[in-house]
Write a structure and sequence with these properties.
Oligomer: single chain
Structural class: alpha/beta
Strand content: 5-15%
Strand order of the largest sheet: 3-6-7-8-9
Number of domains: 2
Shape: elongated
Largest sheet: 5 strands, mixed
Number of strands: 9
Radius of gyration: 30 Å
């Protein structure tokens, strides 16, 4: 017997080998090298901005990137740490420590795997767009705000996590600005901005790091400028392969209490990882003319996030900028993603000393440009011309992300989006009661037919979905009508009916029958009919009183009225 349930897990890596050749390997190899170079500054910057360090950023890009390429459902997806996670990771570390972050990441990985197993890959794509734009813009603003200390070289050792407190702290320390650091940061931003104007191949962030690291070294050794902080001044530098280690529990917590406390943030990590990776995969599909497997992609992302914390890594997902760099440089299979991880591994093993010389204000400039690029300000500007409900969802999500955190923002944003969506459906669903004449519109024909409603008969026409939002309106309307002895419920435009609608229909039918009235159902579609049959409503009115169309229903009403 064939099983009804099967896991949709078909990694793209294994399906590419059938037609793989040397020419494609050459393209993938070069693309992997270039993407690896692009990923170096981003992995380091994301690791530091998240509150861990450069080693953790590189380790995440290596291990998670490898696993996502091997087990993912996209041919060209490049995985690793991304800017979207910075805010969440920083908040988790502040509240639960590094051990709490590791446990939350593992839990998020399990959630992602389960989402893939239960085939939720397509469902996740239905996240309302205003929410995605809102929390992405909010994250961009938050990332920007976290870089002011390094950009201006203020030297604040304990920057508050809260957005408002953070800016109060900055203004309190405005007299501590290091103008050398500020100059390095601004020059880094200018290099990143203007590099694409003379070269599309050289990553602006990498060029900025190379140039400004050299400038800072010259200033330190030949001009005596020692006030510009570098990575090596603040963090332990990468040395050797990462070691396997079990995550430490937050102080005073058992594994079960820790999981209970961390479940909301783990769910947020999983949702954000799923949304970002699948959006990246969808964009990539449009460029290369392929179709990713969303369920396999979620499982691959989940595996990566389960494994990477055991090596000290942080949450990872598909990175759209690195994925597009991969595509633009000829990458067409997961081999390119695998090659990019080996490039990063060489950096981790051989170039730790050089990483330590990178100036912190330069990394701040890199992240400021990352925040600018992910802010989506043009999209926000265009959405401000759309409906007020979309604007409300967008800015509510954005402000909650900035002022509170992403967990609250997504929860409130989703609730608000659902409420506003229900209001729109209610506005488009109408209920009318007719007792004299009824207009019948024939599909595909311009004219309409006017039917006479038999004596002592009322026609209740429901135009739209019959769900909890409109069911109460139907009940109130029915309560005000009491003269007719025959009630026809015309449901030809009812696409679905929920539990509240069924309950209200049951009350309406039962009250009508108890008072000696007859109820006729007209034009019920197949899906709605099955729901009515399962709940016993068809039996209540009698199958003979379920009509295919309004003509039959009115003829039956005339017969009962005779």
């Amino acid at each position: 017997m064939k099983s009804r349930f099967s896991i949709d897990f078909r990694p793209k890596l294994f399906s590419t080998f059938a037609s793989y050749d040397k020419a494609q390997f050459s393209k993938d190899f070069m693309a992997g090298i270039i993407v690896g170079i692009v990923a170096i500054p981003l992995a380091i910057a994301f690791g530091i901005a998240s509150g861990v360090g450069p080693t953790e950023g590189l380790v995440t890009a290596i291990i998670a990137g490898l696993l996502i390429s091997v087990f993912g459902g996209s041919k060209v997806q490049i995985g690793g740490p991304t800017g979207a996670f910075i805010v969440i990771i920083y908040g988790i570390i502040q509240e639960f420590g590094l051990g709490g972050l590791a446990i939350a990441t593992i839990m998020a990985g399990v959630i992602l795997v389960l989402m893939g197993i239960f085939r939720l890959g397509s469902v996740i794509k239905f996240m309302p767009y205003p929410i995605i734009v809102g929390f992405t813009g909010g994250i961009a603003i938050t990332i920007f705000s976290t870089q002011m200390n390094d950009l201006f070289g203020m030297g604040i050792e304990d920057v508050p996590a809260n957005f408002i407190d953070k800016w109060i702290c900055y203004f309190d320390n405005i007299g501590n600005i290091n103008w050398w650091s500020f100059a390095v940061g601004i020059l880094s931003i200018l290099i990143i901005v203007y590099t694409p104007k003379f070269s599309k191949k050289i990553p602006g962030s990498l060029l900025a790091i190379v140039v400004m690291t050299l400038v800072c070294w010259l200033l330190k050794n030949y001009a005596g400028v020692t006030s510009i902080a570098t990575i090596g001044d603040l963090y332990q530098l990468p040395s050797g392969l990462p070691e396997w280690r079990l995550p430490a529990l937050p102080e005073g917590e058992t594994i079960f209490s820790a999981m209970q406390s961390l479940l909301p943030v783990a769910f947020t990590i999983a949702m954000l990882g799923a949304i970002e990776s699948l959006l990246s995969a969808m964009v990539a599909d449009g460029v290369i003319g392929d179709k990713h497997n969303s369920n396999t992609e979620l499982i691959g992302q989940g595996i990566a996030n389960i494994v990477v914390p055991f090596f000290g890594g942080i949450p990872a997902t598909g990175a759209i900028a690195r994925t597009m760099a991969n595509i633009n440089n000829g990458g067409r299979t997961p081999i390119a993603g695998i090659v990019h991880t080996f490039v990063l591994l060489l950096v981790l093993l051989l170039l730790g000393g050089l990483v330590g010389a990178i100036p912190m204000p330069c990394l701040a400039g890199v992240l400021i440009m990352v925040s600018y690029n992910m802010s989506g300000w043009r999209t926000i500007r265009s959405m401000c011309r759309q409906s007020r409900s979309d604007i409300a969802v967008l800015f509510t999500t954005l402000l909650l992300t900035v002022i509170f955190d992403l967990t609250i923002a997504i929860e409130v944003g989703l609730v608000l989006a659902v409420v506003l969506f229900m209001r729109r459906i209610m506005e488009n669903t109408s209920i009318s009661v007719l007792d004299k004449e009824l207009e019948v519109h024939h599909d595909g024909e311009a004219h309409e037919e006017v039917l006479a409603v038999p004596a002592n008969t009322e026609v209740y026409e429901i135009d739209g979905p019959f769900f909890f939002g409109i069911a109460n309106k139907f009940e109130e309307l029915a309560r005000t009508r009491s003269s007719a002895t025959i009630r026809v419920i015309r449901m030809r435009k009812v696409s679905f009916v929920d539990a509240t609608g069924l309950h209200n229909l049951e009350i309406f039918i039962a009250a009508s029958l108890d008072s000696g009235r007859k109820v006729i159902l007209s034009g019920v579609n197949e899906n709605v009919y099955r729901s009515l049959e399962r709940t016993g409503l068809v039996a209540m009115v009698g199958k003979e009183n379920v009509a295919d169309n309004i003509h039959t229903a009115l003829a039956r009403a005339a017969e009962l009225n005779a």
